[in-house]
Fold this sequence. Notes:
The chain crosses the membrane at residues 90-107, 119-152, 172-205, 226-247, 298-318, 330-351, 377-396, 417-436, 1043-1065, 1086-1106, 1118-1144, 1178-1194, 1214-1233. This is DUF3367 domain-containing protein. GO terms for molecular function: transferase activity. Residues 17-698 form the Alpha-(1->3)-arabinofuranosyltransferase N-terminal GT-C domain. By secondary structure, the chain is α+β, with helices and mostly antiparallel strands. The chain folds into four domains: 28-438 and 1101-1230, no CATH class; 451-606 and 617-633, no CATH class; 707-852, Galactose-binding domain-like (Jelly Rolls, Sandwich), CATH 2.60.120.260; 874-945, no CATH class. The protein has a seven-stranded mixed β-sheet with strand order 12-11-13-24-31-26-29. Strands 6-3-7-9-8 form a five-stranded mixed β-sheet, with helices on both faces. It has a five-stranded antiparallel β-sheet with strand order 15-16-21-18-19, with no helix packed on it. Helix 6 packs antiparallel against helix 21 and helix 18 (298-315) packs across helix 21. The chain is globular and about 110 Å long. Mean pLDDT is 89; it is low at 961-970, 1074-1104 and 1232-1238.
Amino acid sequence: MAPTLSRRGWGAxxxxxxxxxxxxxxxxxxxxxxxxLTANPWGFLRxxxxxxxxxxxxxxxxxxxxxxxxxxxxxxxxxxxxxxxxVQRLWWALLLFLAFAGVxxxxxxxxxxxxxxxxxxxxxxxxxxxxxxTLGAISSEAWTIALVPWVMLPVVRSLQLPGRPTxxxxxxxxxxxxxxxxxLGAVNAVATLxxxxxxxxxxxxxxxxxxxQDAPARRRTAWRFAAWWIPGGILACFWWVGPLxxxxxxxxxxxxxxxxxxxxxxxxxxxxxxRGTTSWTAFLSSERQAxxxxxxxxxxxxxxxxxxxxxxxxxxxxRLGAKRSSLPFAGTWLLILGVGIAVFGLAGAPFSPVAxxxxxxxxxxxxxxxxxxxxxxxxxxxxxxxxxxxxxxxSVPSPLTxxxxxxxxxxxxxxxxxxxxxxxTMVAGAATAPAWTGRLVPEDGxxxxxxYWQEAxxxxxxxxxxxxxxxxxxxxxxxxxxxxxxNTRDEPSQALLDVPWVVRDAVPLVPPEAIRGLDGVTxxxxxxxxxxxxxxxxxxxxxxxxxMVLVRTDLTRTxxxxxxRGVLTTLTDSAAAEGFTEVASFGDDDVRIFRVDGSDGAxxxxxxxxxxxDDLEVTAGGPEVLPRLAAADAAAGRTPRDRILTQDxxxxxxxxxxxxxxxxxxxxxxxxxxxxxxxxxxSDILAAEDSRWTRNPVRDYPTGVAEEDLVQVRETGGRxxxxxxxxxxxxxxxxxxxxxxxxxxxxxxxxxxxxxxxxPINQWLNLELDEPRSQMSLNARASGGPLRxxxxxxxxxxxxxxxxMLVPGYREEESRLLLPQGQADRVQLxxxxxxxxxxxxQVQLNEIDSGEDVTPRRDIVVPASGNGLxxxxxxxxxxxxxxxxxxxxxxxxxxxxxxxxxDRCAAGSGTLSLVDGKxxxxxxxxxxxxxxxxxxxxxxxxxxxxxxxxAAAGTEDAADGEASxxxxxxxxxxxDRVILTSTSVNEGRTATVEGTELESVTVNGWQQGWRVxxxxxxxxxxxxxxxxxxxxxxxxxxxxxHWLLAGLVGALVLLLAFAASLVGLRRSDRxxxxxxxxxxxxxxxxxxxxxxxxxxxxxxxxxxAVPAVGRVLGGVSVLALSAGIAGxxxxxxxxxxxxxxxxxxxxxxxxAKKADQSTQxxxxxxxxxxxxxxxxxxxxxxxxxxxxSVLMVRDPWGSGNYSDYAGxxxxxxxxxxxxxxxxxxxxxxxxxxxxxxx
Length: 1238
């Protein structure tokens, strides 16, 4: 067989792919995978040689950074002298060319298609929706897809060798496949493994479970091949497996927060799966221009579905322009496609009956596999093979000759093959249009990072400026670094800074407690929360190791950021401003740097420091509360102090055994968090039974406190539910905690339940009572203008009565509205018409006979059990996010005298709060009797302090003389001490002082502390000597680095073994090797015999029928898979399709028999002829497929209401099941399979 392309042809192809890459946003660097790859590749690779870094936010494990060592990172590092954008395009060009060339070679090896059809199929694979979607934004995932054919190719060739191939030839093939696996890299381990699955399936089907006359020989060949392939694969993967295990062992569970299986599998309808648009990010963001267009525009939906249907037709044996013929290895290609369909279909809601179980697995133990779109090659590769076969029979005159141009192309109506080629070109052009229209680049590429970022980084890196001994906080927070000058996604300073830094981005790769601590700090700068009202903010930052603040003003709104104005106001013109000093500015004030001075001025220390363990105040709360407690301490005249949270108290108690006064806060609270957002991401406080709106495995960042011990809503008298609310974390524009269902019954006119995103019409509020009531009235008031409301009463699930009423607006007088008579235990208020701001600011139900208020209550209760919470020294309650008015229920074990304080009291402004409905003033002392008490205040925080706590605190401060973090003397003490660092806790870290291993202690909820027992040898050291003698290590660093080194050696062994085997094979061939050896050349047909032979290099195959057992197994598999994908309807769709395919020929035979018996003969009517034709397997598959495609094109994602999206409709799903069933039927009944495993 002549090769598809000559050397000159390959050169031309490479040039075309290079040109295609170069025309994508020339001169623009884009946010592809990692900013460091272009900004500082060598530095990035150096960092990857160690698992732990103190430089990155709060100290952290690097997430699979080792995977960039080869080939991705090395490619960028070696080409670092070139312009950044050019290196990116060269990488893309290499990726596209390899994807193209791999498919061409694979089609040659399997004898599929003609020269033109192979090139067409290869282009469709290289520019498949999967690659178009990921190439510009995360090319590391596109890279693994591109190499799938290269991993498969040696497997395919080896299992076609006749007789007994030489060991050397099998070794070359097996090691060649292993080298391709090595080249996959390990940026994402699952993507790497997914790229190997098609090759493994081919090895199983064509080798281990081979059928046919030569099956025993091929099985032996398969196992001999595996004897080299498996060790080679181990050597190829060894370098990253160990680091991956270390990452899995010590990394925080960030996969619980970054996504959920409910989101990643939402677009797994068969229509999307077949066309290759399963990457969920493309449906949610327009940043990936190509992917978003493919996901949402009807033209691309039609074109990509047309390509998929063409591939299915080819798999079914259809061949344009030629007599129908078998696709070589159709059974194996169908097996690969079936596995791919199973991977996606079984996890896809809403059709699959097992989707919930599969998604639960993917959100639990199977979390690494959650992004199943990485298995796209299982579907798309068989489809492009089918395209190559479908078009392989076309024969058209060359348009490059005068005769061909005149005979065919000048009058295409006279040559159907030319028309077919033109249509094919149009469809392929439409399906790949995002590439040749220049949309591979994501939005907001940039020419270069502005110089002021480099200048700011240089200033911070200068040791004379003191940033090396502290941590720099970058503000304001942002989901991603999307600047006015371009989108880097990663922080632009990430590649520039050598000193520790921290930023609150989408999901920092640190423990969840540390993220909560970051949130607590950033809220202090937020315009919607504190914004500078905390005079102790600088001290709170210093306690958490932050000594510098970098403020950037170049973020765009699309970065999901509150903006820099609130930050700058806090730092320069607020009660907190005295603790900060501006020390540098760069650009046109685009980046400004402030030093954190704190109450001690510029001499404040943020490095490791020593505290007495008994000075750690035991606090019931979450890490987010620390700035509030610093403010409360400052208001009471106390110095800043460190804390140990009750959930972090060591099991042996130590000095922090709960006997000292305990501060109780109203954190952590049961809230729901939208992990995809940074601003407006937190709901109001919830009840345990409240519905969830996010799909992640956990509601909020955990703290180690059990859910039942969280501050949460206690429902009494019934429940209140709503169709949605503006406090839901998924609300457009962010959550408004003052607009949840709590607000409808909180007695505060300024707050209200408001519906979530979209029209308020038909949104509803349900009031479910704990027992039926016979006659009720409704007192309600709208949050804006009047509301027209339908009030419906229910008894259980039965509707009792309904009436329409007008609820007065916020400024109107409240009126009493009678509800319909009859026993009812639920009242639904549905909005039918609204004027202005729709919602209920107040809702109250009264039983008319008794006059009793029967409105369900939603009280926010602070737990009062365990860890000394029954008799705390003080309560500090507050609004972590703005609720407008704080409402809390606290429990007092015995009569307790307390003094009232608040943030406004500290600021000198008169303020009033309510305790059990009674007004109290700043500094007022009152006695709380044993039992529950309701606290209300519109201050940001309010404190209730006992005299014992005040006295104890005063004694401590007098003894300390300064903040608990410092000590004027270096004398050793007789108490246990804690060395406190500014990095996050990780169980993989260890510390020693002069050979003494120290016990890990968590301080301030997330900070790494090390306990120095009073009876240890290190106890004789002073505080300063302890800090100097402290040696911290990451336990697994040696194992990590040794594993990388061993992996490097293994990779070199693999490469040398492959090279040596290849050289030896070529020498053997030149010296006249065996016939079996010679037949393995890529351009040589397989010399095999018998009816089960496929002659590689031709499109001709002689095949035997699929045995009965194979047909039964295939049919059962299709039925089971369809039932798994779509339940009973899916199984019915299979049975109906099979019934048509079997029943119609039976009918045709019956009619023919009847006609034979008749004395008169008549031609078959055309309707019957059409019926016979359309009910053949391939035409029927296309009929079902086209019908499903029309529905998908009519209602693609984003074309209207999400409920109209055709991908979630049963009709297209069942039509595509019918289409696939017909394809399988065609293969099973016509013996397709290329004489191999069918």
